[in-house]
Amino acid sequence: MTDPSHGDGQPAASDGIWDRYSNQMIAGLALLVLAMGTVGYRLLEDWSWVDAFYFSAVAVTTVGFGDLAPSTDASKLFTVLYIFSGVAIITLFLNDRLRRRERRVNQAG
Known about the structure:
Number of strands: 0
């Protein structure tokens, strides 16, 4: 049997800690991104909380209905940064969820 440590007494990355907590950490980051976008648009655009949350979700999922749009330079710059970071984190979250589902299906079959 092989020792899962690196020789320095530290467990290897494959010991399951990342697998156990990664989804929770990534989900927390995704919620944080949505919360930051909601607060940002509430402050920058003076939208209602519902409109700000709605636009945040539409922006990071790249749906882009076009019914709401940033109107100030500050909110437009915020949107660019928000989309770059938000899309990356939401994609990471969805990718992690799909990999876990695939792993469960493969183990069951």
